[in-house]
Design brief:
Blueprint lengths: L2 E6 L1 E2 L11 E2 L5 H13 L5 E9 L7 H8 L3 E12 L6 H9 L4 E7 L3 H7 L5 H13 L5 E7 L6 H14 L3 E6 L7 H7 L8 H17 L3 E4 L2 E3 L6 H7 L5 E3 L4 E4 L2 E5 L3 H9 L5 E6 L3 H9 L12 H12 L3 E4 L2 E4 L1 H5 L1 H6 L3
Helix pairs in contact: 1-2, 1-10, 2-3, 6-8
The structure holds S-adenosylmethionine and iron/sulfur cluster.
Length: about 350
């Protein structure tokens, strides 16, 4: 066990598209919450962590000393990857320096778009200029491993807007990029606006053209397309997230956090009080868990996402399936491994389903 995820469930304001487990206006709770994260952590055996990931919500809303307080409890070494997700509306140069001083050595900045009109539609609290300044401040603060999150196929975005986003990426030269197409999540304001016809879904052909443009342009800029939605400069892959795709186990702290430990996959309780109560009673704060009997199923489904590694099938049934998918053009064979083709990449989910 060498990976740990820590969920920070606070946001300044919920974005209109997002259904991640987080609350606005509850930052007063943060000191007590950190106390309980530490108590939860102390109930686990001692491991040395190769990757530590603060995700959210908005971890950058926390006081950097609070992040330091958590990290002080953990064993890690100078090569460990310690990531913090950061919203550009929440951190100036001094705060970025303080995160660095407290042990963070990788940032994942939620930029989403470099177009101010689109940022307004998404309900973001920052402009494109603020996002660019935050990125430059992060470099000035000494961060040499920065990822940015962008979204595509969002309302108001056409090929021209996407081209401008890609030009800005070229100027900033981040080490890593995660770029997901918008998922319309039930229960969000975006979902309601879709039902009422105020917003429209992106046309499938346009979405495919956008994805193609992203893949080709980022490749020309020297990025390796190593996971369906993730691109990195050589050797700058997200080590923590790669463990998820490699089906490795990890501990999770905090409300609503997903874990995979001791053969169980599951999720922590969602409310602060239930979390505190479980920890006060020295119980695991688990909401639901499932024992994994067939590890291979996950290994194949997740492994296919890794575009340089793919999967190494061992059972005849799966070898036959891979051969059929190869004949149909969805997979290609490299030595004994099978990797998604460009055609398979665009139809990812329908390929993955076949391994269930
Ligand atoms: C926890 S947030 C990142 C940190 C910070 N909260 C922020 O938004 O700046 C994780 C990322 O998930 C992506 N995301 C959230 N909701 C999404 C949705 N409905 N569709 C696609 N991507 C989404 C966004 O790119 C976002 O940056
Ligand atoms: S995208 Fe980030 S800032 Fe926006 S609501 Fe989701 S977690 Fe919070």
């Amino acid at each position: 066990m060498d990976a740990i995820y820590i969920h920070i469930p606070f946001c300044m304001k919920k974005c209109a598209y997002c259904d991640f487990h987080s609350f606005e206006g509850k930052l007063d709770e943060s000191k007590r919450y950190v106390d309980y994260l530490i108590k939860d952590f102390k109930n686990w055996p001692t491991y040395e962590y190769d990757t530590i990931y603060f995700g959210g919500g908005t971890p950058s809303l926390l006081d950097p000393d609070e992040i330091g307080r958590i990290l002080k409890e953990m064993n890690y070494n100078k090569n460990s990857e310690i990531t913090l997700e950061l919203n550009p509306a929440t951190a100036n140069l001094n705060k970025l320096k303080a995160f660095k001083k407290n042990g963070i050595n990788r940032l994942s900045i939620g930029i989403q778009s470099f177009n101010d009109d689109i940022l307004t539609t998404l309900g973001r609290l920052h402009s494109s200029e603020k996002a660019i300044n935050t990125f430059n401040n992060a470099r000035d603060a000494g961060f040499d491993n920065i990822s940015i999150d962008l979204m595509f196929a969002v309302p108001g975005q056409g090929i021209d807007e996407l081209k401008k986003d890609l030009e800005t990426i070229k100027l900033l030269n981040p080490d890593h990029i995660s770029i997901y197409s918008l998922i319309w999540e039930e229960g969000t304001p975006f979902w309601d606006m879709l039902q009422k016809g105020i917003l429209k879904e992106c046309d499938n052909d346009l979405e495919a053209d956008m994805f193609e443009l992203i893949i080709d342009t980022l490749k020309d800029m020297g990025y390796v397309h190593y996971e369906i939605s993730n691109f990195s400069k050589p050797n700058m892959e997200a080590r923590h997230n790669s463990k998820y795709w490699e089906n490795k186990e990890y501990i999770a702290l905090g409300i609503g956090a997903s874990f995979y430990t001791n053969n169980f996959r599951g999720k922590n309780v969602l409310s602060f009080n239930k979390y505190y109560e479980a920890i006060d009673n020295s119980e695991k704060p688990w909401l639901e868990k499932e024992e994994i009997f067939d590890k291979k199923e996950y290994e194949y489904m997740l492994g296919l996402r890794l575009l340089n590694k793919g999967i190494l099938p061992t059972e005849n049934k799966i070898i036959d399936l891979c051969q059929k998918l190869e004949n149909d053009g969805f997979l290609k064979k490299y030595e004994n491994r099978y990797i998604l083709t460009r055609k398979g990449l665009f139809l990812g989910n329908s390929v993955f389903e076949k391994f269930l």
